[in-house]
Structure formats: structure tokens, C-alpha cells
Design brief:
The chain is mainly α. It contains one helix and no strands.
């Protein structure tokens, strides 16, 4: 009931292909996650810059309103 050398070699090749396939899938998923993470970070920085710009504009408008309402 022992397997022949051919059957053992065939099973080893199948196992090698199995792990190669799943290894490639893992690398592809990780690369996608890194790409999405980098895009999210870029978007976050853009939103932060936009928020800071709006805040500066609102503060500037408030200073203008105070300056002109008090007659300085």
C-alpha cells in the first residue's frame, strides 16, 4: 500500500503549485491594501488642508467683522 515515487512526486508538485498560488494571492491582496491605505492617507491630508483653509478664512472674516464694526 505504499505510493510509488511517481505519485509522491506528483503530489509534491501539486502541493508546490498550491502554495505558490496562495502565496501570489496573498501578495496581491497585501499590495492592494497598501495601495488603498496610501490613497486614504493622501485623501486625509487633502481634507485636513481644506479644513485648515476654511478655518483660516472664517477667522479672517471674523477679524474683519470686528474691525469694521468697532470703527478701528
Amino acid at each position: 500500500m505504499t505510493k510509488s515515487n511517481f505519485a509522491k512526486t506528483k503530489a509534491q508538485i501539486k502541493s508546490y503549485q498550491y502554495y505558490l498560488f496562495w502565496g501570489a494571492c496573498t501578495v496581491a491582496v497585501m499590495a492592494g491594501q497598501i495601495f488603498v491605505g496610501a490613497g486614504y492617507q493622501s485623501m486625509s491630508n487633502s481634507v485636513k488642508d481644506l479644513t485648515e483653509t476654511i478655518q483660516v478664512k472664517m477667522e479672517w472674516d471674523e477679524l474683519d467683522r470686528r474691525r469694521y464694526s468697532t470703527g478701528i
